[in-house]
Amino acid sequence: MRGEFIGVWSETWREIWLPLIDHEDVPEDIFCELYRALAPALKSQPSVEALANIIDNPVQSREAFEKSGANDFAGERSLVAFLEAAHSALDELAGDELSNRYFNLLAGFIEKFSLRYDLRRPCTLCPTLPGVFASLVRDLRALTGQDAHLDALMKDFENAVRDLRHDCCDGRIKTCIQKQVNLLEAIGRTAPGVTGATLGAICNQVGSWPHDKLKEAMKGLYGFASDDPGIRHGGTPANALRAVDMRDMVAMSILLAGFTPYLSSALDADIVYRGA
Hints:
By secondary structure, this protein is mainly alpha-helical.
C-alpha cells in the first residue's frame, strides 16, 4: 500500500533534514525558518509569544523541530502543506541550491517509502492514482471495522482474494465477486433512507448518483453477478459468453470498490484523495 508522510515522519530526520544541513554553506538559522513553516501544521500551535521565542533561537528551533512527532500534527494534509511550504522557506533563506537539495531529498524519500505522491516543480505534492485507490481501501477497512457485521464481510472478501494465491479457478474467482457484492450490499443498507435488500434496489434508493448512467452501470455489474452461473445464483448459463478468469477478478474488484463512495456517506472522497 502506498503510504502517507505522517506514518513515516520519524524517518525524515535521518533521510531529509540531517542530509540537508550536512553542508558548510547552510545558514545557522535554518531551523528557525523550518519551524516557522512547521508550526501551522501542529495540532496544538504555539502562541505568538512562544513561537517568537523558538524561532529567535537557532538551538531551540532545532530542538523543537526534531522533537515534533507524528502525533503532534493536525493530519496528513497539514503535514503535506508544511513540506511544500518548507521549499519556499528554504529558497527565501538561501536560494536555489538549498531548496533544490531539499527537493531532491524529498523526492528520494517518497520513492524509498513508496508514498502516495508525485513531487512536481517547484514543490507540489500531488496524490497518485495508486495512492488514491490505496486510501480508498484503507478507509473502507476503517469503515467496516466499526461494525461487527461489516467487518466479518470485509474479512470474507479479503480471505477469498487471498485464496486465489493457491488456485485461480473459475469457482474461486466467482467467490471473490460474490463476497464483494455481499459486502457492498451490507454497506449500502447503512445509507439513510435505504430499505432495499439487494444491491440493485439499494442503487435506486441511495440518491447519490450524479447521472443515471452511473447508477445503471452499478446495477449492470450487480446484474452480471446475479445472472452469471454460480456467482450469486444459478444464473442463466446461456448468457455466459465464457468462463470467468483473472481479468474479471481484477476488473470487478476495482470497479466495485470504486462505487463504494456512492453507497456510504461515511467514506469522505476528499479525504480519500487528499488525506485527513
